[in-house]
Design brief:
The complex is a heterodimer.
Chain A lengths: L2 H29 L1 H29 L3 E6 L9 E6 L1 H24 L6 H20 L3 H19 L6 H32 L4 H7 L6 H18 L7 H8 L2 H25 L1 H4 L7 E3 L2 E3 L1 H26 L3 H25 L4 H35 L15 H14 L6 H16 L1 H26 L15 H19 L1 H17 L2 H8 L3
Antiparallel strand pairs in A: 1-2, 3-4
Chain B lengths: L4 H19 L3 H23 L20 H32 L4 H10 L1
Helix pairs in contact in B: 1-2, 2-3
Chain lengths: 530, 116
């Protein structure tokens, strides 16, 4: 088997490897616990290798990979599932691979004292498989199935510590929201299927022409509502702080990834499936006096408004929390707002250079947010591991005993609040610059909330790490190596991204932004050239 | 009109389900609401594939007449299986919640949360 064969089959293998690994884990777990941990890390590592192989080919060589499950014959009316990997998909699976790998390494020590770890690892791998599926699939119904795989396994993981009532409650909240969201999405898929007799995203994108029919609009509203619910946009964010805050830290890290997979799907639906109606020469939805109401303007304004509310609510709620992980969770809500803001601005000013810049900033911020928020969650988990304490009011003076963790928290703090030279600065600068050109108020709110985020985390830093010695924490030790390695990995990537933003933007973000902005390549790969 | 009855049923099921999820305070009733929404969506999928006087899409013995579309039925089957998994998970979580708090009332659960 040579490299080309592996590359051709990699879209399927990226899902198959963790899926197979998931069901082998309980068997291997019967032999030896250490062997199981090694096996899981190897499985995830192999997936990561396949991901890097595939995304290198897509991002650097500019190819679009398709993978067909079922009949290979293009012409006949066939029942089949297509995977399609373009720049945006490749970008997302990189995030997924980094997060899953770090989470598994972190789990080694973090979850050591728990029982039922064979189930834990099985669910982690299932969640990873579902997440990669969501990021790779080119079929609407297949997307729904992967969405449900992800939400079922992540719900079980959020409620993993069933001895805590609140964790179970958070799991219940999550499953209710995600099921309703998924059913909305399924309803939208059914509407589109009934209208166009197709489930493939590219075929649907080709069929949905401007002006949109009433059913198209209904489906779009349902899709956006369902996916925004899963992505945690205010006012549908209330499950997110609970789920992020109560789940084990390693699970939270992957949850960040699955949330972003939903966000990716939202972008894919709006930009690709409804892409034809977005372009500037598309017919306006309605005319009021002299003003044309176009789809991209309307969607852009709505998304930007939601994003602004999300940012403000997230930051303000983060300020008043006293629980470590809940603080970070609300900051994560705010960060999702930033991506949404940038993409909404990009939609608003579609076809212009600053619109494109906003889009790039938003996409770059997806990966930065995953790394920054992920690192902070891992630090919170490490502190919980060392002190068994989550309330900020009862902590203090931890910097004395946990040097490395303190450094990692500082890195995360600077990155999440957009300070140079961390990666958050690079993407936030892009967002500020581009939104300022569209409407200065947007940029002002964004900068202000960034400063508030800094205030939030300086407060957290002060109450957890600085301050007088607390006798109770005298014999607190630094966390085990595997957790330090996991945090160190994320911190290294953060600093690397912060120091060489050009490299990342040109090689990874650009292809992704172009793939979103221009859907004709995505369509022609399946339908055939124009 | 008569052919629209399934669609009216779909709308009614989804609306009743959403009402239950949003306004009911008992966790089990919320779960019932979710299953109602799910039935509504499943019915919608099935209805889409049905043609007047069509028969089940089974090719054995070359039956005459038009067949209903099999794809939505396959989708519905998948969706039902997923729904069962979700339902089981939700109910098992409810059992855990009841063990911890001794209540299924959302208001009382929220009160417990404040006290902690």
């Amino acid at each position: 088997m040579n490299m080309d064969t592996i590359l051709t089959h990699s879209p399927a293998l990226i899902i198959a490897v963790p899926l197979l690994g998931a069901f082998l884990t309980p068997l291997i777990s019967r032999i030896n616990d250490k062997l199981r941990n090694v096996f899981v890390i190897l499985t995830v590592g192999l997936t990561g290798f396949l991901v890097s192989l595939l995304s290198y080919d897509v991002l650097i060589n500019g190819k679009i990979h398709t993978y067909v499950f079922g009949s290979q014959d293009i012409g006949s009316p066939v029942v089949r599932i297509l995977f399609e990997v373009d720049g945006m998909n490749a970008f997302m699976i990189i995030i997924g691979a980094i997060l899953v790998f770090v989470a598994v390494v972190y789990s080694w020590a973090f979850m050591k004292e728990n029982t039922g770890l064979d189930k834990y690892y099985t669910l982690i791998l299932l969640m990873a498989a579902g997440m990669f599926g969501m990021m790779l699939t080119g079929d609407m119904f297949n997307f729904f199935v992967f969405l449900e795989i992800t939400s079922i396994s992540s719900c079980a993981l959020i409620a993993f510590w069933t001895n805590k009532g609140k964790a179970v409650e958070a799991g219940f909240k999550y499953i209710v929201i995600s099921t309703i969201g998924a059913l909305f999405i399924l309803f939208a898929i059914a509407i589109l299927y009934g209208q166009y007799n197709a489930l493939n995203m590219a075929v649907l994108a080709n069929s949905i022409q401007s002006p949109m029919t009433f059913l198209d609009k209904t489906a779009l509203v349902l899709l956006i509502a369902g996916l925004a619910m899963k992505a945690g946009i205010v006012p549908m964010h209330m499950w997110l702080p609970d789920a992020y805050g109560r789940a084990p830290a390693s699970v939270t890290l992957i949850l960040v990834g699955t949330t972003q997979a939903s966000l990716y799907a939202l972008f894919r639906m709006v930009f690709t499936v409804y892409g034809n109606s977005l372009s500037l020469d598309a017919e306006p939805l309605r005319q009021i006096g002299e003003v044309d109401i176009t789809l991209n303007g309307l969607l852009g304004v709505i998304i930007v408004l939601l994003a602004i509310i999300t940012i403000i609510v997230g930051v303000l709620m983060a300020l008043k929390q006293s629980d470590f992980k809940r603080t970070i969770a609300f900051a994560a809500v705010a960060e999702i707002g930033y991506m949404f803001l940038a993409v909404g601005a990009g939609l608003w000013a579609i076809g212009t250079t600053h619109g494109m810049m906003a889009l790039k900033g938003g996409i770059f911020h997806i990966i930065n947010d995953a790394l920054d928020v992920g690192l902070l969650f891992l630090v919170a988990g490490a502190i919980y591991y060392a002190t068994k304490e989550t309330s900020l009011n009862k902590m203090g003076g931890l910097a004395r005993n946990m040097k490395y963790t303190t450094i990692f928290f500082l890195i995360g703090l600077l990155a999440v609040s957009g300070m140079p030279p961390m990666n958050g600065f690079a993407s936030k600068l892009l967002i500020y610059e581009s939104t300022y050109l569209i409407n200065p108020i947007l940029a002002i709110v964004a900068i202000l909330c960034s400063i508030l985020l800094l205030a939030v985390f300086v407060k957290v830093f002060h109450s957890a790490f600085l301050g007088p010695k607390i006798p109770r924490f005298n014999d607190v030790k630094e966390v085990p190596k595997s957790m330090l390695i996991a945090m160190g990995l994320l911190a290294c990537v953060i600093i690397f991204f912060g120091l060489f933003p050009d490299l990342i933007v040109n090689n990874i973000v650009d292809p992704a932004a172009n793939a979103l902005a221009n859907n004709s390549n995505y369509i022609s790969q399946i339908i055939g050239g124009p | 009109m008569i052919y629209n009855i399934p669609f009216i049923a779909v709308a009614a099921l989804i609306m009743i389900g959403l009402y239950a999820v949003i306004f009911k305070r008992n966790l089990i009733k919320i779960v019932i609401g979710i299953t109602l929404i799910e039935s509504g969506v499943n019915l919608f999928l099935i209805t889409l594939g049905y043609r007047e006087k069509s028969i089940a899409p089974i090719h054995t013995g070359n039956p005459e007449g038009i067949m209903s579309l099999p794809v939505p039925q396959a989708l519905t089957l998948t969706s039902i299986v997923i729904g069962v998994a979700v339902l089981a998970l939700m109910l098992s979580l409810i059992i855990h919640i009841y063990r911890h708090y001794g209540t299924l009332d959302v208001r009382k659960l929220a009160k417990e949360e404040d006290e902690e």
